[in-house]
Amino acid sequence: MKTGVYDFERVEMVVGDNNFKVDGFVETLEDLTDVDLIFTSDNANLESVLRMLPEKYLNDFKHFRSKGKFHFEASINGQLGPKDFPAIDVSFGLKNGSITSPRLEHSLKEVTFTALYSNGDDHNNRTSTLEIPSFKGYFNRELIELSLKTNNFDDPRLDFQLDGVVPLAS
User: Fold this and answer.
1) Cα-atom radius of gyration of the chain, to the nearest Å?
2) Given this model, what pLDDT does residue 169 score?
3) Which residues, including other chains, have CB under 8 Å from residue 142's CB and lie 6 or more apart?
4) Sheet of 87-100, strands arranged across
5) Measured between alpha carbons, how far apart are the two ends of the chain, in Å?
6) What span, in angstroms and rounded, lies between the C-alpha atoms of 133 and 136?
7) pTM, 2 dp
8) How confident is the model at residue 3 (pLDDT cuts 50, 70, 90)?
9) CA-to-CA distance for 121 and 116, rounded, in angstroms?
10) Which of 86, 116, 137, 167 is most buried when burial is the number of CB atoms within 10 A of its CB?
C-alpha cells in the first residue's frame, strides 16, 4: 500500500451473486491511476450481471433470470485520470440455457449467445459498442435467431435483425 501498487493474482471477488477471478494490477501515480485487470467467471448468471447496469437501464432488465452455462470475461486496461479513461472490453454469454421473465409470455429455451461490449478507441460513450452477433433460442417452441449491434451511446444507432415468430404481446 505504501508504494501505491496493488497486484492481484488469482484473487476471488464477489459482486452481488457473481464470483469473479481477478488478475492484474492497479498502480496509483501522482495524477492518474494505471490499471491492467482481467475479470473472469464461469459461475455467474445473467440476472446478477444485469444488476450491474446503470440505474437508468436496470428497471428494464431486473426481472430476467437465466439457467445454463454462463460465461463472463472483462478487461480494464489503461490510465484513469481527470482526462483519461482506460479501455474496457467485456464478453459474456449463455450456452444451452434458458431465460425467463414475468414480462415474457413463455420462457426462452435452448438459448445460446455471446454479447460483446467495448468502450472503443477513445474509451468513451461515443466510441462504445454493444454487439450480440448471434442469438439463438426457442420461444414457445419456435426458433428465434437474432443479431444486434449498437454504437455511439451518446446518439445510439441500432442494427437489429430477427428471424422467428414472436407474439407481439410478449
Assistant:
1) 18
2) 65
3) 164, 165, 166
4) 5-15, 18-28, 33-41, 65-80, 87-100, 108-118, 129-139, 142-151, 157-163
5) 52
6) 10
7) 0.85
8) confident
9) 15
10) 137
Q: Given the C-alpha cell 444488476, which residue does it identify?
A: 51
What is the three-class DSSP state of 43? coil
Pull the grid cell for residue 106: 413463455
Query: SS3 letters for 33-98?
Result: EEEEEEEEECCCCHHHHHCCCCHHHHHHHCCCEEEEEEEEEEEEEEEECCCCCCEEEEEEEEEEEE
Residue at 30: amino acid letter: E
Which amino acid is residue 71, in one-letter code? H
* Position with higher pLDDT, 53 vs 146: 146
Name the average pLDDT for the chain: 89
Is 70 exceeded by the pLDDT of residue 1? Answer: no
**138 grid coordinates:** 426457442
Burial class (CB in 10 A: 0-12, 13-18, 19+), 46: buried
